[in-house]
Design goal:
Elements: E1 13-14, E2 17-22, H1 24-28, E3 35-40, E4 43-48, E5 77-91, E6 96-112, E7 115-130, E8 136-138, E9 142-151, E10 156-166, E11 169-178, E12 186-193
Length: about 200
């Protein structure tokens, strides 16, 4: 997918290959389930120009267009896997480039009682930032595991497990967020530090 005019000649999104496996039984039964999607070596390039505009801002939908309590969209896939991906963020205001390299993400998606369940793990091989003064920093491997359930119909997010390991810092979060569409949502979270 080409980038917007004014944001460079590199692609906004590209991938080496993709594979879609279709559930024949679900297809024969007329279910809205396709199966599994695997994307190999995707690259996403996020650019913030000198005016602070992003190369994806034209794709955003205003959040006030969705009805409060609306059901989540139907997801035709039950498993998503991304292998060896790269995310590049170029901030032309700050003159910095951040690269998320060797990104692997595996997630199972379920829809039960109008709640969208997501259970998976994201691994980032390295996060490298190049600043305008020429300094380069690296965070090393980062891992994020999650088991969450989002139910827009009752305006609730259940976090069974949200575990993050970013360099030497490890956190484990669990709990509930309700009234998410309110200006003051109700947040009841337990946060603990984990060993690296």
């Amino acid at each position: 997918i080409d980038d917007r005019p004014g944001f460079g000649s590199e692609a906004f999104v590209s991938t080496e290959s993709g594979e879609l496996s279709i559930s024949l039984m679900a297809l024969l039964l007329g279910q809205d389930e396709i199966g599994k999607l695997h994307i190999e070596k995707p690259t996403i390039r996020i650019v913030i120009n000198e005016k602070g505009e992003t190369n994806y801002s034209d794709m955003l939908v205003a959040s006030d267009t969705q009805e409060p309590g609306a059901a989540p969209p139907v997801l035709p896939i039950t498993h998503l896997e991304i292998s060896n991906g790269t995310l590049v963020q170029e901030d032309r205001q700050l003159g910095s480039i951040t690269k998320f390299e060797s990104v692997d993400y595996s997630v199972d998606l379920t829809l039960k009682d109008a709640a969208l369940g997501l259970e998976g793990q994201l691994t980032i091989g390295d996060i490298i930032t190049s600043a305008s003064d020429g300094t380069v920093s690296s965070l090393g491997t980062s891992v994020l595991g999650h088991s969450i359930s989002l139910n827009p119909g009752v305006d609730r997010l259940d976090i069974e497990r949200f575990e993050m390991q970013l360099g030497p810092l490890g956190l484990l979060v669990s709990g509930v967020v309700t009234r998410m569409s309110d200006e003051s949502p109700s947040i009841d979270l337990q946060v603990s530090e984990t060993a690296s």
